[in-house]
């Protein structure tokens, strides 16, 4: 009896995509792999890297050349290194580390451009007595200039790379060092950087072989990202990966209805799955009004709706456990109360907090939280990395004792003190030091507090109110918000979405974000996008698509925002007859 292996439609589509990638590389043609949600983009990227290793590694290493693979997160970088066995011919790094490695030897040119990097740099240069022959350095990402050194901000490194990419000599050196450059999650590439690559390498058909891997429908972070990279077909070969290895058939059908130009093949054509769409149009009470809350349920009613829908889904067989089911909150109506950081969100507003746009919050969540977590675990090397320090600075035994005592005090205040208590301690101990922007705000706040309230203008009054309120919030709310943003809880916002997958997903869609309006997005998808609104539409559509693509088996949507007849029609066109007008139980 012959045992025939059945190749699924998704596997066949994946093989076709990979063959096209290999053909493009063999012809030395720049290419772009457009891989929709669940398509297995990283698999294709790793296969392409291994093909390059097999064919070119010995030659490249002999000539001191490497295959560059640029990522946008440390997690992705580590995964690529692991899956290529840390091969010495592969230089897998984040975009900032790659940029610095590429430009660090051009010290004279770097110094000549420092004054152009931001409005703040000329002031720093003047305070330091000018740019002379200082060494330009990039490590912690905090901008500073002394008589010996110039420290770059993270954004500065990208700007300098963009500037140098227009230099012919730099192009030649970069091509010599990295004859092959792959860019993971290409849609998150800085727009100016992507255009520099197009302008200098892809359009003139010179320089390194460049391969882009990603999906412009999954661009959900940052307005400075390029999204779709486009060039003439003879300059950039676009390869669609028409596969979905994640979701059951009914979910893939919905994704294909949303995106017919990149139809995905099923991993298991016999799979079933489940989709339910709940909406709250039957509710007859007074909805919220004004600004970005218009049309949503009151917060307490939205909370009741969420609980009622969860109970209804449980009755249908859903199990709400952390490792099985995820609730994705695309609303602020119930978030803060649900998660225990309502005072923090009241002080800052949702965008400053959950998008970490405020200097205090980005520092506390990205630096203090992981540093304290490492301290509690006794992982001091990890703590040093989190705090952005050089390890020799605390190598002496006496220094270790001093650090242990002061970080112990910090850890205690993080548990029991306010944000202001934590900031004041860091001003005293400088372990770790505050970023310059926070130091400047602290000085400004002290100066304004010393000023009679009646002498402050409106902007000064708002500044004082914002940061006195923030400093008064218990630091524990920062930890809870950090857990939420970093996706450690059963709930998740848009910031914990991309790349994750779960058995079952409940998506709660409402108002409260400045940039998101689900009813409007559905209406535009149905009737056409108004002039000048393409970016706004894509921002909403992309996040909606990404969240709907997360589950393997079951997807439920709950709209707490009211929906028009046109919006209902569009949902029906995408999802079929699965809409339930849901009201609260008596």
Describe the SSE topology.
Blueprint: H1 9-26, E1 31-35, H2 41-62, E2 67-71, H3 74-83, E3 90-94, H4 95-103, H5 107-113, H6 121-128, E4 135-137, E5 144-145, E6 149-151, H7 154-165, H8 168-177, E7 180-184, H9 191-202, E8 209-214, E9 237-241, E10 243-244, H10 249-258, E11 265-266, E12 274-279, H11 299-315, E13 325-330, H12 335-339, H13 342-348, H14 350-354, H15 359-377, H16 380-386, H17 397-416, H18 419-429, H19 436-449, H20 458-472, H21 476-485, E14 491-492, E15 502-509, H22 518-527, H23 534-548, E16 551-559, H24 565-575, E17 579-581
Parallel strand pairs: 1-8, 1-9, 2-3, 2-7, 4-6, 7-8, 10-11, 12-16, 12-17, 13-14, 13-15, 15-16
Antiparallel strand pairs: 5-6
Architecture overview:
This protein has 586 residues and is an alpha/beta fold. The chain has 4 domains: 9-95 and 162-244, Rossmann fold (3-Layer(aba) Sandwich); 103-151, no CATH class; 273-320 and 490-581, no CATH class; 348-484, no CATH class. 48% of the residues lie in helices and 13% in strands. The chain contains 24 helices and 17 strands. The strands form 4 sheets. It has a 6-stranded parallel β-sheet with strand order 3-2-7-8-1-9. A 6-stranded parallel β-sheet has the order 14-13-15-16-12-17, with helices on one face. It is globular.
């Amino acid at each position: 009896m012959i045992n025939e292996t059945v190749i699924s439609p998704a596997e066949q589509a994946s093989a076709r995509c990979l063959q096209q990638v290999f053909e493009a590389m063999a012809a030395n043609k720049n290419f772009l792999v457009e891989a929709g949600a669940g398509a297995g983009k990283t698999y294709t990227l790793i296969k392409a890297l291994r093909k390059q290793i097999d064919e070119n590694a010995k030659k490249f290493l002999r000539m001191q050349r490497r295959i560059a693979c640029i990522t946008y997160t440390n997690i992705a970088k580590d995964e690529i290194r692991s899956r290529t066995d840390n091969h010495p011919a592969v230089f897998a790094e984040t975009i900032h580390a790659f940029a610095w490695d590429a430009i660090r030897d051009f010290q004279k040119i770097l110094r000549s451009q420092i004054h152009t990097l931001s409005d703040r740099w000329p002031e720093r240069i003047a305070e330091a007595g000018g740019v002379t022959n200082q060494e330009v350095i990039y490590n912690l990402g905090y901008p500073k200039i002394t008589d010996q050194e110039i420290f770059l901000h993270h954004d500065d490194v990208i700007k300098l790379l963009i500037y140098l990419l227009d230099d012919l000599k730099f192009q030649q050196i970069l091509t010599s060092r990295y004859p092959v450059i792959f860019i993971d999650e290409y849609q998150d590439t800085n727009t100016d950087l992507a255009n520099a690559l197009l302008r200098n390498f892809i359009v003139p058909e010179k320089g390194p072989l460049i391969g882009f891997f990603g999906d412009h429908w999954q661009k959900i972070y940052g307005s400075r990202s390029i999204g779709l990279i486009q060039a003439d077909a003879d300059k950039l070969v676009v390869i669609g990966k028409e596969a979905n290895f994640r979701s059951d058939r009914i979910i893939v059908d919905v994704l294909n209805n949303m995106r017919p130009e990149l139809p995905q093949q099923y991993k298991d054509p016999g799979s079933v799955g489940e989709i339910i769409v709940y909406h709250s149009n039957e509710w007859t009470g007074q909805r919220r009004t004004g600004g970005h809350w218009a049309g949503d349920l009151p917060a307490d009613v939205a909370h009741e709706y969420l609980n009622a829908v969860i109970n209804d889904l449980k009755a249908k067989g859903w199990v709400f456990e952390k490792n099985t089911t995820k609730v994705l909150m695309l609303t602020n109506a119930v978030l803060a109360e649900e998660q225990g950081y309502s005072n923090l969100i009241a002080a800052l507003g949702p965008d400053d907090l959950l998008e970490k746009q405020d200097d205090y919050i980005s520092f506390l969540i990205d630096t203090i939280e992981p540093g304290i977590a490492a301290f509690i675990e006794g992982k001091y090397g990890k703590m040093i990395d989190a705090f952005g320090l050089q390890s020799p600075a605390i190598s002496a035994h006496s220094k270790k004792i001093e650090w242990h005592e002061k970080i112990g005090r910090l850890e205690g205040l993080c548990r029991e003190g306010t944000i202001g208590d934590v900031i004041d301690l860091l001003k005293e101990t400088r372990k770790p030091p505050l970023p310059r922007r926070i130091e400047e705000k602290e000085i400004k706040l002290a100066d304004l507090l010393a000023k009679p309230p009646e002498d402050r203008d409106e902007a000064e009054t708002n500044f004082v109110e914002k940061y006195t309120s923030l400093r008064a919030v218990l630091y524990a709310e920062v930890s809870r918000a950090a857990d939420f943003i970093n996706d450690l809880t059963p709930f998740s916002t848009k910031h914990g979405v991309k790349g994750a997958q779960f058995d079952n997903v409940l998506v709660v869609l409402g108002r409260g974000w400045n940039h998101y309006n689900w009813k409007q997005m559905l209406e535009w998808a149905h009737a056409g996008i108004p002039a000048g609104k393409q970016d706004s539409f894509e921002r909403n559509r992309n996040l909606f698509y990404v969240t709907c693509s997360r589950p393997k088996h079951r997807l439920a949507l709950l709209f707490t925002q009211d929906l028009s007849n046109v919006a209902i029609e569009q949902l029906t066109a995408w999802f079929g007859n699965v809409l339930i007008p849901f009201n609260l139980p008596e």
